[in-house]
Structures are given as C-alpha cells and as structure tokens.
Amino acid sequence: MTSGVQVPTILLPVPGIDLHKWSVIACDQFTSEPEYWAEVARIVGMAPSTFHITLPEVYLETPEEETRVRSIKDTMHEYLSRGLFEEFRGVVLVERTAGGRTRHGLMLALDLEQYDYTKGSTSLIRATEGTILERIPPRVRIRSGAPLELPHILVLIDDPEGTVIEPLVAQQASDTPLYDFDLMLGSGHLRGYAVDPASEGRLMAALARLGDPEVFTQKYGLTQGTAPLVFAMGDGNHSLATAKAIWESIKSEVGMDHPARYALVEIENIHDRGLEFEPIFRVLFDVREGLADAVDRTYPDRFHLLPVATPDMMVSLVDAQAQRDDEHAIGVLTPDGCHVLYVTAPPSNLPVGTLQTFLDAWGKEGGYAKIDYVHGLDVTERLGTQAGNLGFYLPAIDKSSFFKTVIVDGALPRKTFSMGEAREKRFYLEARRIV
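RE: above sequence
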C-alpha cells in the first residue's frame, strides 16, 4: 500500500453471466435521452445486470425514482445470495477500445481520508471541477446501507514518462484476460487483465514517486512545501464525494479499518494517447426571455452576438479564440439559427467559467426551467434548436497543462470537460463490498 492507495478485493461476475447485458454505462450519461435507457432496459430484460443495481439519472425526480432506489439494495443482496460474484484480490489492468481509440487504466481503491473536494483543497486526491452539493443527497440515498459499490469513477495521474500504467500494457497483453467482451450500443470493447504481485509492487513505487514532494515541486516549477496532487478527478467526482460523505458520517462508529474508508476507482494517465478531453456543452429548456436581454444584465456593454450561417462556422470561430483571455467566444444554437456570443473582459480564465457565471445568474432569475450538460455537438444542436430551448457550444481545454492549472488555480468551473464522448464513458462491471 502506498499513501492514498489500497490493493482492492474486487467482485467480478461469475462465468456464465452475459457481460454484454451485465455491463451498462455510467448513470450520469444520456440524462436527456430517455430513449437510450429504454433501449438498455430492452437489451437487459430480467438478466443479471448492473442496470438493476445502479440508478440512471434519467429517472431522478420521476415517479420511478423511489421504487428503483428501494429495488437497488434488494437486488444487490439477491445477487450476493445467489453467488453471482467471484472475488479477485489485486489490481486489474483495464483496456477500453471506443471511438477508434484504445486507452488503459488500473482498478485501485483510493483512501477517502486523502480526498477533499472543497475549493482550495491541498489533499493528495482532489476534485478538478466545482462540486454541486445538491447532487450528493440522491446518491447518498442509494449508497447508504448498500452492501456494494459499483464505480464509474475515473481518476487521472500526470505521468508523462509512463512509469505507472504503461509498463504493464505490453506485459499483460499475452495473458488470458479476466473479461473480454463487446459493450452495448456502440460503446466499443472492454478487456481486463490481472496484474501480478511483483508488478503491483513496482506500480505502487511509481505512484509513490509521483507524490514525492521534491519530484512534485520540480515537475511543476513550484515552491518547496506545495502539497502534492497525485490523483485528480476525471469523471465521477460526485460519486466519490458521496462515498466521502458517508465515510465521514460513519467512521467514528466503525473504525478506520472499515472497507467504506476506500472507494474503488479506475486510474488513467492523462497522457494516454487514447484519452481525449472533450468539452461539455449546455442546453437550456423552456427559455422564457431573449438571450441578449439576459446577457446584458450580467455583462452590460461587454458582449455582442454574431449571427453565423452554419454550425461548422460557429465551431470554427469559437475554437479560433479558445486561447484568448481578453475576449471569450461561446457558440449558441437556437431555433432561429446559430450565433457566437463574444464577451470582453471576461471574469474567468476559461470560456466555460464565463458562460456558467451568466447561466447561474439567469437561472436564479427564473429565465429558464432546466439546464442539462450534454456531450457532442450533434446532441446539443438537436436539443438546442427545438422550440423554447437554447444550446451552448464550448471549446476543449488543453490536457497537457491540466494538472498545473488545478494546482495553481484550484478547481475548474463545474462541468468543464469530459473524458471522451458520452458513449466512451466508463461502464459498470466490477463491484466491491463496502459493509
């Protein structure tokens, strides 16, 4: 064990279970596309599946939510009693091919004592985006008292020399995988390999080196004494924040050796060639006021809206200004066509922060009924151009400077980036006991 990390005991589905039906995408995907989840339900049917022991957020605040939350815990106990899991103690090397790219990760358990999601945190494990506190209680209702956790959490390390994960890739490729199957609905292929104990020791030493204070400060050109950041949240921060909240509420009763102290996650190197950072777009529903009038209240005399002929032209103009800090450009998709919103003297370092500041203020004024965070220009265009809606396009951020930005500036605005498109998100497969 190295600081912040534990070799986990993982529960995998026993042989004979149809993994194509067992494994479903992270619960926070396709939240505005109920047709996706209807198709998942059709594919899975009554077969053993993580669909039955997780809560897709498309069902939040619907009549189905309460029933599904009750059913999740009952079904977890049923799957355990039926012997649908087998134990594997060790690290798993995960290989995911999706969208024509292959990336690798490691299944490890992170110590929640080393994680702090609050802004300005100096913990070993940190949030990279603002944590939306109101998103935690629904997750607490599911995790509290549940016997299992099923992670869709992806955590990043900054390892440009490839010392942690990459040495394992060629070594394990000739081994028989623990699992090897196609994911549903065009989301690619998933393999997992057992990491041998000798290699475990080497990767733990490599992780420890990333957190060495002297190595850390030299790497980023920081002053001595700056608290190291080794694990930066990629996806699933609110799930990890939920695990942290529950751990803090029970640790005085259960003691520090309880399994709930840790959370199962997948670690990925931010420099993995198969890992791409995608911007997360915004869609507003039931917009009740003209956009220009609303923007004028937040950025008076500092903005203008430029009509453009096509979405491609909009994207080109926005991306061309992605690195400017004196004026931000944001794409707007409306039922009446495309625009680019320019804001001078922006209040944030990133266009997403400038946009979110405006959207938060407008939302508090009741200017729209609902906001959703979506992946892909196609989805943003389809939803944003429907009557009463608006869609917003944002440029991607540079992943090469990501860690230093978080270290120096703190957490980024919420929903700044996504690790891949929606269909490339992590699928549930592994489980772990937390009671």
